[in-house]
Amino acid sequence: MNTKLHSPKLLAPKIAFIKAQWHSDIVDNSLTGFLDQINQSMPNATVDAFDVPGAFEMPLLAKKLAKTGKYDAIIASAFVVDGGIYHHEFVSAAVVNGLMDVQLETEVPVFSVSLTPHNYQETDVLTNFFKAHFVEKGKEAANAVEKVLSIDLGQLQNASAA
C-alpha cells in the first residue's frame, strides 16, 4: 500500500478531537498522546479540541463537525466505566455505533479512543495505569489517522479497474 501523502490538503490535515469530560483526568491524556505523535508524523496538522459532558454526546458533535466540511478526520475519546449497573454497556455500544454511523454517512473518518474497562476502581494504581494507557491510545489514534489519510484513493480506483 502506498503511504505517501499526495494531496496538499492531507499534508496539513485539519483534525477534530472530541473528549468526554467524565474522568477527564484520564481522558485528557489521549489528547496529549495524540498531539505528541501527530506533531512528529504530520507536523503541519491542525488539531481542534472539543469537550462534551460525556461519551453519549460524542456522536452528535462528531456528525456536526463532519458536516461542516472543515475536518479531514475526527477522534472521539471517552472512558466509560461500570458504575454497578449495566448502563456502561449500553452507552459504549451506542457511542461506537453512533461514531461508525457518522463516518459512513459523512465519509469523514472517525476514530474512537473510547475504552470500557471490565474493572475500574478509583485507586491510584488503576488511575495511573489508565492515564498512561490513554496516552498510548492517543498515539495509536494518531498513527491510524496518518495511515487512513495517506491512502491514495486514485491508486485504489485504478487497481480496482484493472
Q: Which features does this protein show?
A:
4-stranded parallel beta sheet; globular; Rossmann fold; 54% helix; 6 helices; disordered N terminus; 17% strand; 162 residues; alpha/beta
- Output mean pLDDT: 84
What general outline do the C-alpha atoms trace?
A: globular
Q: Segments where pLDDT lies below 50 for 5+ residues?
A: 1-5
CATH class: Alpha Beta
Largest sheet: 4 strands, parallel
Structural class: alpha/beta
- Record field, number of beta strands: 4
Summarize the entry for a quick read.
By secondary structure, the chain is an alpha/beta fold. It has one domain (11-161): Rossmann fold.
How would you portray this structure in words?
The chain has 162 residues and is α/β, with parallel strands linked by helices. The protein has one domain: Rossmann fold, CATH 3.40.50. The protein has six helices and four strands, in the order H-E-H-E-H-E-H-E-H-H.
Helices and strands, with pairings:
Elements: H1 8-11, E1 14-20, H2 24-41, E2 46-52, H3 58-67, E3 73-79, H4 87-106, E4 110-115, H5 124-149, H6 153-161
Helix pairs in contact: 2-5, 3-4
